[in-house]
Amino acid sequence: MSDDRIRLVGDRLILREFVETDVTAVHSYASDPIVTQFMDWGPNSIEDTRAFLCAVLGQARTPRRTSFDLAMVDIDSQAFIGSATLSVTNVEHRRGEIGYVLHPEFWSKGLATDAAQMLLRFGFGELQLRRISATCHPDNHASSRVLEKAGLVFEGRMRSHLFARGEWRDSLLYAVISDDSALRSVSRS
Question: What is the pTM of this model?
Answer without folding.
Answer: 0.91
